[in-house]
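ok here's Formate dehydrogenase-specific chaperone, seq below lol
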Amino acid sequence: MTSKGEFAAGRGLYYSLFSRFFVFSQDADRFSGVNAMLGLASAHALNEESAAAIMRIQARFDEKNPQNLADEFDEIFHAPPSPLRNSLSYYDEGYEVGHACAKVRKILARTDLRRDEAKFKENEDNVGFVFALMSEFIAREGERELYGELEEQLFKEIINPNIDEFIEGLFNHESSEIYKDVAVLLQGFIEFERVVLSAPRPINQGENKKTLDGVSRSEAIRRQKNRVRKLKAMEEENAKK
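and the structure came out like this:
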């Protein structure tokens, strides 16, 4: 029978594994520990699909020479013309550094944890950073009840509403090969976490969530600012006459 501590350690392992896959780094050891974590995840696979995905990842990933995975990461997340966004704000509102990022920063402010900018190059709502944060909260939940509360808040308010669209984009990206199986593994784990944290899968609002009349919210705001600026200019011009 699995103890409470072992159960938490297993969940933390998965979050730590996914943070390795999604945090950008130029360090040679960016994927250090992935083989060991995949081995542990395989021994305690969540379902048959996850077990098969782990086997395929293991067959194509070499921790001593992970260049193929690093190249695939760059093709998916950095290469033009349509890199996959890994900011949860984007899936929440249609632009980056939005409310989701602000919420993560507020959660961090309740702890002694801060984003190490040397290690985490992107913002606090980056998928990899959020997963690393979940792993840390789970590791600390035995110390203070606060971390259990923050872990639940982070999942329910930030991860759960936005992660499905990210996973779908990752799975369907034309450059996804190893990451296609990472997407399968991540989807299985997210469904597991929804049960653990009593967080139902949200109703998919699709484009309606991040657009208004076919225009992204960021573009709508930009247009509104331009209209206000033009009106002020017209008023000033009329005042001179």
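fwiw The mean pLDDT is 85. kinda neat tbh
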